Amino acid sequence: MEKRTTFSKWSVGILFAVPQLLLIFTFFYWPAGQAIYWSLTLQQPWGGGNIWVGLDNFRSILASADYWNSVTISITFAAISTGIAMGAALVLAALTDRQLRGSKFYSVVLIWPYGIAAPASAMAFRFILAPEAGLISVVNQWWPGIWDPGLNGADAMACIIAAYSWKYIGYSFIFFLAAFQAIPRSLIEAAAMDGSSVLRRFWDIQFPLITPTIFFLLVINITESFQDSYGIVDIMTSGGPHNSTNLMVYKIISDGFKGLDYSGAAAQSIVLMLLIIVLTIFQFRFIERRVHYR
Q: What distance in Å separates the CA atoms of residue 250 and residue 74, rounded to the nearest whole number?
């Protein structure tokens, strides 16, 4: 029988919950409330409080072509980087789970990228992908001008996607490897004895059993791709060229702390929060149906 802790007085339970409630209020509800308040007001240029403007900040940003460009490239960035990170991590975890020679070494090495700070990985990829001296410079020697992230927006987007995906491959790899190792070996061995190939065992047995992990990582990766890309963009492209990598989170911080448009940045942060909520609801509503929890 499961043992549960009980309290003779309800006030004792409340006292245990107070620290957690304070943390949630201080670090979530209070900042979110401030962002909503700032998004509905206009800060006076020399202080003296905010002026209530209602939805004017939202009307202003939604009428901006630059903002919609930021939304479009943010969704493109999230879709491609999540697909690359999860796809590569899934393949690497499946290969590592086969316990081939050196698999333990690879299981350690492949986790390291997630421990590296985003600006540090961005700096490394900036040198690696530099058109004049990096690994890609060889391509430019064969076809001059074919690769130039400083002038070509598509090349710049490819740079930040490569750096971001590389970092999150390690994160997804940890969960995929744990999911593979939780599958009973007897199932895999029985299928192998029946003559099932490696790919058939993966598709018919392993893949359905790890769908809860795939769904969890899909939600987390998409959410993080909207929130955790500022450091990489700032180091590698600074939002350029021609705003081709000016993602939503980078635009929020740039407008707020460089352009000192705190109210506009707050309105953008509310839109970003709503977009993430809608995408999460969509995933739970339509994709979770394909998840096998048993």
A: 10
Q: Which long-range contacts (CB under 8 A, 24 or more apart) does 196-204 make?
A: 198/98, 202/94
Find the helix or strand (DSSP H, E) in which 61 lies.
Answer: helix 56-62
Q: According to the model, what pLDDT value does residue 2 have?
A: 59
Average pLDDT of the residues of the chain? 87
The SS3 of residue 52 is strand
Q: Mind listing the pLDDT tens digit for each residue in 28-85?
A: 899 889 889 989 998 776 667 788 888 999 999 999 999 999 999 999 999 999 999 9
Nearest to residue 159, comparing CAs of 232, 221, 252?
232
Q: Name the burial class of residue 56, with classes exposed (0-12), middle (13-18) and buried (19+) by CB atoms within 10 angstroms of its CB.
A: middle
Write down the residue that tokens 């506009």 correspond to: 264
Helix and strand counts by DSSP (H, E) for the chain: 16, 2
How far is residue 287 from each of residues 211, 278, 281, 284, measured CA to CA in Å? 10, 13, 10, 6
H-helix or E-strand containing 41? strand 41-43
The model's pLDDT over 116-169, given as tens digits with 9 standing for 90+, comes to 888 888 898 888 888 887 777 788 888 887 888 888 899 999 999 999 999 899
Cis check: omega of the bond before 241, within 30 degrees of 0? yes
- Which ranges of 65-210 would DSSP assign to H, the alpha helix? 65-97, 103-109, 112-115, 118-128, 137-142, 153-181, 185-193, 198-201, 207-209
